[in-house]
Design brief:
The protein has 20 helices and 22 strands. With about 625 residues, it is α+β, with helices and mostly antiparallel strands. The strands form five sheets. Strands 1-6-5-4-7-3-2-8-9 form a nine-stranded mixed β-sheet, covered by helices on one side. A five-stranded mixed β-sheet has the order 10-11-14-12-13, sandwiched between helices.
Length: about 625
């Protein structure tokens, strides 16, 4: 047998420990690297054969697990290599510049800089030494007259060439698994990893466990994933079936978007809008990144903006620059272009759905509303398209756009509500005020405590074309809309009366409570609370960001309606002077009712309310008996 020894041309002998420590964060990456290399070899053979007018067999990768021999064997029928090519591409070229690599890896603690360096070296094959104590490569080149060769390395800079009996064109790599990595010989573990990284590689991948005498080879991948297919040939069920395979525990997706572009960059993929579970946090890493059908990462933060993070699916591009570990994206102009393209396609897809099937769009709004509003705040182009398709629930419970809202304003109020949107906070606003506006034909938009304060602020600060936006809470706007024109001399008396009872000389209360009098058209409402609009927004946004430590007392104004009968009678009782205590009880009762109608009462205030109500009713009942 003819043998020839050689060594990797580096002056340091600790290249392999450096690779094991720095090259990959997870040892199972070797499966992806070796299988994807095998697929690349098949593609290259096919390409060369076509250029030379030759036939080639159908490409295939075969993997054998041999627990008894402690080996994993990966074979392909790609273009193969001669001895000189093995030495060039495996033994030497991968380590060009390795001296610099080793020295910098020894001293470097900065991960970003590390990624920039290792991206310059073709070290993918050497991931095998993260789990193998010895690696054997047998290869036969597709070139006529080639002889097979065998390369053996024990995980150091020395290697040996020897004769091989390989008779078929292609490459076979045998890993002799190290003692600390024997778990990779377990078929279940190996298959799980193989499925994760290689489910959509372009050639059939067969897996056989030799420890099972009756085992047959299983094909574990789908060679033509959905995103590689012509969307005009696909039906809804094809997309749903693909989603079920990728996310078997999820309910059916709401809708989806098929991506396909080849200029100025290449990108294919399918993105799904999932049905959200309101009781569970939004799952991150729902989009998988592929490069030539090879799984790269489920972290796509630099490619897909945060506001699209709830989407699920897959994107595949050869124009996304990766470091050698394929786990980190490197700076490149294409990244921004791809990100902008995805944003554009998502907004166009939602716009098309709204215009073609608004009912379906509205049904999905509970799931997509949060990310649409967030997206409008995050991306100018997305905002320009999508702001007019943002929905709010109105007083009638109907979902409307801001444009719909303006179109529905009664003619009598068009001037007062031009470019203005009256809103109420869900579960925190006075329902009686909404009913008063509704009686006038004026709708009010329901908002939440979380995203909406930020979205409203964004709309007010950022015009779309010449369109301006102004949001006003119902308690701050109702007097502007429904204030009666007539005034009465008792209005000032009522204000002084309520302020004396509720505030008096108490300086602390004066900091948090004020009293005002506004005569409204509808006399049924006795009083309501109003908070300064800007202070309310500030409080909302502070709360939505979870900054409870920064909370501060907000001054509220009790707005009393002098047209209300209860208010008139309370003043009369107070002025007579005989039943001042009763008048005070009525004032506190009016305040309690206003609190109940808006944000509610605290536990302590509820007890006081019950006690005061009982006392008030008892006293009033004396005048009936």
């Amino acid at each position: 047998m003819t043998t020839r020894k050689g060594s990797i041309s580096v002056k340091t002998n600790d290249i392999f420990p450096i690779i094991k420590k720095w090259l990959y964060s997870e040892h199972d990456i070797f499966i992806r690297e070796l299988v994807s290399n095998a697929c690349d070899a098949i593609t290259k053979r096919s390409t060369l054969a076509r250029s030379e007018g030759h036939e080639t067999p159908a490409g295939k990768v075969s993997i054998l697990l041999n627990k008894e021999a402690k080996t994993i064997t990966i074979s392909d029928n790609g273009l193969g290599m001669s001895e000189s090519e093995v030495e060039k591409y495996i033994a030497q070229l991968a380590f060009s510049g390795a001296e610099e690599f080793v020295q910098k890896m020894k001293t470097m603690g900065n991960t970003t800089a590390k990624d920039e360096i290792i991206g310059k070296f073709g070290l993918g094959f050497y991931s095998a030494f993260m789990v193998a104590a010895k690696v054997e490569v047998e290869s036969l080149s597709m070139q006529p007259g080639s002889k097979p060769t065998k390369w053996t390395c024990l995980g150091d800079t020395e290697y040996e060439f020897s004769d091989s009996t390989k008779s078929e064109v292609g490459t076979t790599i045998t890993l002799h698994i190290a003692e600390d990595s024997l778990d990779f010989l377990d078929k279940w573990k190996f298959n799980e990893t193989l499925t994760r990284y290689c489910s959509f590689m372009p050639y059939p991948i067969g897996l056989m466990d030799l420890s099972n005498k009756e085992a047959t080879e299983e094909i574990i991948n789908e060679t033509t994933p959905l995103w590689k297919k012509d969307p005009t040939t696909l039906k809804d069920e094809d997309y749903k079936e693909f989603y079920r395979k990728m996310f078997p525990m999820d309910p059916e997706p709401l809708f989806w978007l098929h991506l396909n572009v080849d200029h100025p960059f290449t990108l294919q993929g399918v993105l799904f809008f999932p049905k959200l579970n309101q009781s569970k946090p939004i799952q991150e890493n729902g989009i998988q990144l592929y490069s030539k059908q090879v799984f790269v990462s489920d972290s796509v933060k630099n490619i897909v903006p945060d506001f699209l993070g709830l989407l699920k699916g897959a994107i595949d591009s050869v124009d996304i620059p990766l470091n050698v570990s394929r786990s980190s994206l490197q700076g490149d102009p294409n990244i921004k272009k791809i990100s902008n393209y995805i944003i554009k396609k998502v907004s166009e897809s939602l716009k098309k759905l709204f215009n073609s099937d608004r009912e379906r769009y509205e049904k999905a709004w509970e799931d997509i509303g949060l990310f649409v509003k967030y997206g409008c705040m995050q991306d100018e182009k997305f905002d320009e398209v999508m702001r007019k398709f943002v929905l709010f629930k109105n007083t009638d419970g109907k979902l409307v756009t801001l444009e719909d809202y303006q179109a529905g304003v009664p003619e009598a109020y068009k001037e007062k509500l031009k470019d203005k949107y009256v809103y109420f906070e869900k579960n925190l606003s006075d329902e009686s005020l909404r009913k008063q506006l509704q009686a006038e034909g004026i709708q009010v938009l329901e908002t939440d405590q979380y995203i909406d304060p930020h979205f409203m602020q964004h709309c007010e600060m950022k015009k779309i074309g010449e369109q301006t936006f102004k949001f006003a809470s119902i308690d701050s706007e109702i007097e502007n809309l429904l204030e009666a024109t007539d005034t009465h001399a008792d209005d000032i008396k009522i204000k002084d009366f309520f302020k004396q009872v509720l505030v008096g000389d108490n300086k602390e209360k004066e900091m948090t409570l004020d009293v005002d009098v506004k005569s409204l058209k509808n006399a049924s409402s006795s009083a309501y609370f109003k908070v300064d609009e800007q202070m309310k927004r500030f409080q909302q946004m502070t709360k939505s960001m979870g900054n409870s430590a920064f909370s501060m007392p907000v001054k509220k104004t009790l707005v009393v309606n002098p047209r209300n009968t209860l208010i008139k009678n309370a003043l009369k009782i107070w002025e007579k002077g005989e039943k001042k205590e009763l008048a005070e009880k009525i004032v506190h009762h009016v305040q309690d009712l206003a609190s109940l109608s808006s944000e509610g009462l605290t536990s302590e205030d509820k007890e006081k309310f019950v006690s005061r109500s009982q006392s008030l009713v008892q006293e009033l009942s004396q005048y009936i008996v």
